[in-house]
């Protein structure tokens, strides 16, 4: 997949993107379900073994973030999504534009529903998801265990 927009490009994530992916993931770690910092070697091994359907977000050939997808349900035409963006590129509308474009592409591919989970304390992300049309459908108590305690998450969905 490759979608060229005026301000950014969304494309299949490649092996040579993994150094930047690890860097971005480490910045986003406090907001991820698995708050473990993996080494570059572990990241490469995971990528080669799992072959995830992830998508790079580039600006002028520089990776600024990525879209994570998983749990593809071909029967119900649904998928699970997430997006990690380097902090230097937050607040400029890139996450909104990337999600919006990806959701349009997923709809063309036949998907009907997208799901995600967001930490209840991540208010900026929650506001973004509501702006994108995601609806909350429940709270997952103690969804994430951190060194400082447990954090609830909001489970959300969007019809495509």
Structure description:
The structure is a single chain. The chain is an alpha+beta fold. It has one domain (2-159): Aminopeptidase. It has four helices and eight strands. It has helices at residues 18-28, 40-50, 94-108, 123-131, and strands spanning 2-4, 9-12, 54-59, 62-73, 78-85, 113-119, 135-146, 149-159. Strands 1-2-3-4-5-6-8-7 form an eight-stranded mixed beta sheet. β7 and β8 (149-159) form a beta hairpin. The model has no long low-confidence stretch (mean pLDDT 94).
Give the strand order of the largest sheet, numbering strands 1, 2, ... along the chain. Answer: 1-2-3-4-5-6-8-7
Relevant CATH superfamily: Gcn5-related N-acetyltransferase (GNAT)
Helix content: 25-40%
**Residue-averaged pLDDT, rounded?**
94
Q: How big is the Rg?
A: 15 Å
**Can you summarize the main beta sheet?**
8 strands, mixed
């Amino acid at each position: 997949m490759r979608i060229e927009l005026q301000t950014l490009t969304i494309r299949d994530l490649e092996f040579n993107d993994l150094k930047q992916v690890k860097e971005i993931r480490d910045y986003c770690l406090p907001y991820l379900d698995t708050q473990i910092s993996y080494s570059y070697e572990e990241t490469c091994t995971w990528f080669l073994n799992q072959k995830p359907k992830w998508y790079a977000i580039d600006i002028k050939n520089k990776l600024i973030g990525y879209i994570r997808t998983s749990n593809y349900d071909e029967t119900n035409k649904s998928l699970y999504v997430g997006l990690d963006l380097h902090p230097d590129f937050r607040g400029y509308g890139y996450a909104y534009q990337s999600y919006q474009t990806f959701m349009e592409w997923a709809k063309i591919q036949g998907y009907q529903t997208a799901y995600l989970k967001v930490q209840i304390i991540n208010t900026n992300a929650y506001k973004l998801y509501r702006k994108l049309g995601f609806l909350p459908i429940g709270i997952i108590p103690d969804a994430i265990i951190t060194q400082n305690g447990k954090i609830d998450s909001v489970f959300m969905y969007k019809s495509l």
